[in-house]
Amino acid sequence: MRISVSILGADFSRLGQEIADVERAGADWIHVDVMDGHFVPNITFGPNMVSSLKKCTKVPLDVHLMISEPQKYIPAFVKAGANWITFHMESEGNPVQTIAMIHGLGAKAGIAINPGTPAEAVFPYLSMADMVLAMTVQPGFGGQKFNAAVLDKVRLLKAKAPSVPIQIDGGVNPETISQAGAAGVDICVAGSAVVGKPDYAAAVTALRKAAESVAD
User: Fold this and answer.
1) Is the dihedral of CA 143, 131, 178, 198 positive or negative?
2) What is the largest CA-CA distance in the chain?
3) What is the pLDDT confidence band of residue 48, given thresholds at 50, 70 and 90?
4) pLDDT of 130-147, one tens digit each?
5) Do residues 215 and 181 make contact, with C-beta atoms less than 8 angstroms apart?
6) Taking the C-alpha atoms of 204, 205, 206 and 211 in order, what is their torsion angle to the nearest 10 degrees?
7) Which residues pair with 36 in a beta bridge?
């Protein structure tokens, strides 16, 4: 399982060091939560932040667009250095066109669905998407409780398209990551389970061990 560490809760007064610590801890990706204050009730990062992060790390930047009009901003985020762009099914725009735009700009495309959106909503796009993100919390704020019922959607998605990686985001910790692994999740976004802990490497290692225990 890959671990994508969210920087939403990072200390922005020392962001470069935070990113270095996350990378040194063994994170596979850096997860960037982009919120516009409209699609979700919070405002976070723009393309300039992604550009700055790109200078600080060699691991892929996993950019999650929780915004109303993704097509309007995708080119700027890809130009800034995003390797993965994930947009929401619930946002504006035709998903086929959005995926084509992301691919045309040279990035990988993910489709996200909120806890209340059925897995079947993304079935028509599974052959085009590079990843599906099943939100295990309501998007907008970090630190929420893991919604285990979403793992039923993960199982449906894996049955429908076994080769498409499934990511979850929200409430991930050593206990819930083992549940996720058992359901077939391929990538877990970890925020407060890593960032803010005294030892980032120990936190990432704990997550990996919990995920690997399922395979054992």
Assistant:
1) negative
2) 45
3) very high
4) 999 999 999 876 667 899
5) yes
6) 90
7) 43
Q: Taking the complete model, does pTM exceed 0.90, yes or no?
A: yes
- Exposure letters 149-162 (e unless 16+ CB within 10 A, then b): ebbebbeebbeebe
- CATH fold of 2-215, please? TIM Barrel (3.20.20)
Give the pLDDT confidence of 172-188 residue by residue, as tens digits: 999 999 999 999 999 99
| DSSP run (H or E) holding 131 | strand 131-135
Q: Where are the alpha helices (DSSP H) in 110-171?
A: 151-160
Boundaries of every domain in the chain: 2-215
Q: How far is CA 97 from CA 11, 125, 137, 152, 215, in A?
A: 36, 11, 27, 28, 37
Which single residue is written with the structure tokens 């007064």? 13
Mean pLDDT of the chain: 95
Give the 3-state secondary structure of residue 12.
helix
Catalytic positions, please?
Answer: 33, 169
Q: What pLDDT, on a 0 to 100 scale, did the predictor assign at position 82?
A: 98
Sequence-separated (6 or more) residues with CB below 8 Å from residue 43? 35, 36, 37
Which helix H or strand E contains 72, and what residues bound it? helix 70-80
Q: Is 126 helix (H, G, I), strand (E, B) or coil?
A: coil
State the pLDDT confidence band at 216, using cuts at 50, 70 and 90: very low
The neighbouring-strand residues paired with 112 are 88, 133
